[in-house]
Amino acid sequence: MKPTLYIVVPCYNEEEVLPITAPMFIGKIESLTAAGKISDKSRVFFVNDGSRDKTWDIIKSLAQKDNRVKGISLSRNRGHQNALLAGLMEAKDNCDITVSIDCDGQDDINAIDKMVDEYLAGCDVVYGVRSNRKSDTAFKRGSAQLYYKLLNVLGAEVVYNHADYRLLSSRVLRELEGFKEVNLFLRGMITLVGFKSTSVSYERTPRLAGESKYPLKKMLSLAFDGITSFSVKPIRIITAFGFIVALISLVGIIWSVVTALMGKSVAGWASMVSIICFLGGVQLLSLGIIGEYIGKMYLETKQRPRYIISETTDNK
Ligand code: UDP
Ligand code: MG
To answer: Which ligand is nearest to the CA of 83?
Structure first.
């Protein structure tokens, strides 16, 4: 039995690039079907993430013209990770494998062939890994590298230079469904699901049209979610730091008492102020980090739905 492939593509305000990349995705389904690797029930599955432009209209008209195109529309913008999860969860009962990919053409679609080959060879997860980051700015490249290292040090397992371009089998998707968290960081969750995995490398190119929908603010918030959703080490670091500071101040207290008793105490105003400021800063920072975790718990306990679908295309 040939597997049914769904290419899951989240789109947010992508009217400029969709007309260019949609035919590429359809072409990939066509060539893989022709090569006899996937079934003719395979589809390109678009998720409209509450776009404010003509993205959903474009998806609907694509679906009307071509029955290999399907789409769902979310009731509002929920962000890339939620849109992707919506696509994966809605696809999982209709297919054997999904490949998630951005809709801007940055990820080389020819890597899908290799991914499908790896699946046929027995892998459940195939990560698309960037062979270079030439198309990114020096800042994005540098910060990303630092971030992957930091994540791994803090104990969240992520694949280096892998974003959200990957193949997942329906078996993995069914297990992923059991991960109920609302603070999503998919690339960390997939490594937790486990199963046999491998990676294929591809070259990442510049966006074909339109602008990045990941401004610095969204990038930072994803980065922060990645750390605080997967690691409690920051809290432990705070504890350890507090312990060390307490020890040092104990020594300081003894020292000041001894000097006072020896009648050698001087007007130590400067050192007093700097110690108070430093401790104040450390306390605020620590409270902030702890507050971040409590905030996350608050959001998780509400168990709100992670996405709401408002419309679907009719294609089966
Ligand atoms: N995206 C989305 N919802 C958002 C932001 C982005 O679905 O709120 C989609 C976007 O349409 C694209 C993918 O996520 O398909 C990656 O975004 P982008 O290419 O802008 O990010 P970058 O490559 O610059 O990191
Ligand atoms: Mg992009």
So the answer is: 1
Question: Per residue in 278-296, pLDDT tens?
Answer: 777 778 788 888 888 888 8
- Expressed in angstroms and rounded, the spacing between residue 14 Cα and the centre of ligand 1 is 9
Grade residue 267 by pLDDT with cuts at 50, 70 and 90.
low
d(CA 158, CA 144): 12
CA angle (222 as vertex; 241, 173 as ends), nearest 5: 115
Ligand 1, atom 14, residue with closest C-alpha: 80
Helix axes 111-120, 18-34, angle to 10 degrees: 40
Question: In the numeric block, which tokens belong to residue 186?
Answer: 């998919």
Phi, psi of 116 (to 5 degrees): -65, -40
| Percent of residues, the chain, with pLDDT higher than 90 | 48
Ligand that lies nearest to the alpha carbon of residue 10, given by its number in the listed order: 1
- Tell me the CA–centroid distance for residue 92 and ligand 1, in Å: 22
Confidence (pLDDT) at 216: 78
Work out whether strand 125-130 and strand 197-202 pair parallel, antiparallel, or are unpaired: parallel
pLDDT reading at 271 higher than 80: no
Cα 102 to ligand 2 centre (Å): 6
What residue spans define the domains of the chain? 5-140+162-215+309-315, 233-302
Q: Please, are residues 100 and 91 in contact by the beta-carbon 8 Å criterion?
A: no
129-148 residue pLDDT tens: 988 777 777 887 888 888 88
Paired tokens of 251 = 């020594």
CATH number of 5-140+162-215+309-315: 3.90.550.10
